[in-house]
Specification:
- By secondary structure, the chain is an all-alpha fold.
- It has one domain.
- Helices cover 83% and strands 0% of the residues.
- It is built from six helices and no strands.
- α2 runs antiparallel to α3, α4 crosses α5 and α5 packs antiparallel against α6.
């Protein structure tokens, strides 16, 4: 879709062209799956091959989606408050993830790995969605 056609479609839909658009919901499901892939492969070894396929699809589709979001990234980097918020949320999520991964290293039963995979999937998906929501809210408040 051309830029002119997309701006016409956006204005018809009531969306201002300079407003920041969130990432699609399926993107967060990919993030959650990638967070849970280690435990899934421990509980069910063939999931390792599935994980490779999902990561390749994620990279291919993700780069196409994220390429359009470069304006969003530049706005985050220009805003000191949004940059500090994004970095703080990243550090917090990584600390939580490493704590959960530490638990995964101590588990041996497949059922425990499945439970941790479910927790990591939920934390990865919801955490990345919440990070986006909070940073977009900060950027939108700055532009008003």
């Amino acid at each position: 879709m051309s830029t002119k056609a997309s701006s016409v479609a956006d204005s018809a839909a009531g969306v201002e062209p300079d407003e920041f658009q969130p990432l699609p919901g399926w993107f967060f499901l990919f993030v959650g799956y990638i967070a849970a892939q280690y435990d899934l492969s421990q509980a069910w070894p063939p999931a390792g091959f599935l994980s490779l396929a999902v990561v390749l699809v994620y990279l291919t589709v993700g780069f196409r989606v994220l390429r359009r979001r470069m304006r969003y990234l530049r706005a985050v980097l220009r805003s000191r408050k949004a940059t500090i918020l994004a970095l703080g949320l990243f550090v917090l999520r990584q600390a939580l993830r490493f704590g959960l991964v530490g638990l995964a290293m101590m588990t041996t039963a497949a059922s425990q790995h499945l439970l941790l995979a479910a927790v990591l999937f939920a934390v990865g998906s919801a955490g990345s969605w919440f990070d986006q929501w909070l940073v977009l809210r900060t950027l939108r408040s700055r532009t008003r």
